[in-house]
Amino acid sequence: MSKKIGIPANDLNENLIFNELECRNKLKEAIVGQDYAINIMVDRIAKWKMNLLDPNKAWGAFLFVGPTGVGKTELAGEIARQLFHNNESLIILDGSEYKESHTTSCLIGAPSGYEGHESGGKLTTPLLQNPYRVVLFDEFEKAHDDVRKLFLQAFDRGCITDRRGKVADCTKALFLMTSNLGSEKQFFAVNTEIGHVELIESLKPILIKKLSPELYGRFTEVVPFMPLTKKDRPRLAEVQLKKIKAYQQQQNTFDLSWTSETIKILAMTEADLRLGGRNFCKKVAARIESALKKLIVANGAPLKGVVTIDKCLEAAER
Q: Beta partners for 223?
């Protein structure tokens, strides 16, 4: 059963209680500056794992709102990895690809007789194969209204029917929609948990007007993602170091090591955080890559063993 549905055997054991603290800590290691959003999601996951939710509806349908590059898409990917321990369980859809009404056929399959009708849809086919999924729909507001309306059935009745009449089970799927709707000034003005609630209330008229009252009302919750600040720089730098370390381990090259001084140096990287953490991490990665390149050239050979980056980082920037 574990192999068939892609869930670890331990997670199928009814005698084991979901470890909420462990899940929260792992998500916070990977996602910087969004503890409020992480707490909301972990609470919902725990309720699902403990069979406390309505079994006839999708167990989670969340709208992630916030500026670009603050971790909305990254959190969805991390949740999929935490729940199912693989990347295959994540269905990724992009609103910019579904701006026309006819693109609904891409999600649920083309009508019988049309080209490609036998292959099914990008949403329904994976759900028919395995209903244990995380569905990520990026830039949801950009999709056509007819495309967005498809999810009313999924959220409310826990199923979605494809063009062939096959009914895909949505009760075991988590739906995460992301959006940049709203005023950036509103986001940048909020920095407390009380402010999060007030922010969503101020965005509510904008979201309802764009997404329709019916759809807005069917979301489990609207989750705000806040802008990153200077205090998040050290954690962002550390996350980027861990990513590069993982890349090198995957290629069996060398084991990257660093100290607290490394993080301090990288945290001072010049980057406008209003453009999101992605921009900052790119510049941090470029500094690390340049330092490693200079060390390889100096050694005249590929790096092996444990490589501590501190000294070569300083040397590369002299």
A: 64
d(CA 125, CA 119): 8
**Which contiguous run of DSSP H or E holds residue 174?**
strand 174-179
pLDDT digits (tens, 9 = 90+) for 244-259: 999 888 888 889 999 8
Question: Amino acid identity, residue 16?
Answer: L
Based on its alpha-carbon atoms, the radius of gyration of the chain, rounded to whole angstroms, reads 22
Distance CA 40, CA 62 (A): 10
Confidence band, pLDDT 50/70/90 cuts, at residue 299: confident
Give every CB contact of residue 258 below 8 A, 6+ residues apart in sequence: 241, 308, 309, 310
Alpha helices in 50-180 (DSSP H): 72-84, 104-108, 124-129, 145-157
SS3 175: strand
Mode of pairing for the β-strands spanning 221-224 and 60-65: parallel
Query: What CATH number was assigned to the domain covering residues 230-316?
Result: 1.10.8
How far apart (Å, rounded) are the C-alpha atoms in residues 70 and 126? 28
> Under DSSP, is residue 160 helix (H, G, I), strand (E, B) or coil?
strand
Instruction: Please say whether the beta carbons of 36 and 191 come within 8 A.
Output: no
Structure confidence by residue, pLDDT tens digits, 42-84: 999 999 999 999 999 999 999 999 988 899 999 999 999 999 8
Written as six digits, the tokens of 294 are: 């200079």
Q: Residues near 238 by Cβ (< 8 Å), separated by ≥ 6?
A: 263
Whole-Å CA distances, 152 to 125, 214, 216, 241: 18, 8, 10, 41
User: Measured on CA atoms in the order 208, 213, 218, 221, is the torsion positive or negative?
Assistant: positive
Question: Strand order of the sheet with strand 134-138?
Answer: 90-94, 134-138, 174-179, 60-65, 221-224
Query: For 2-224, which CATH class?
Result: alpha beta
pLDDT value at position 79? 95
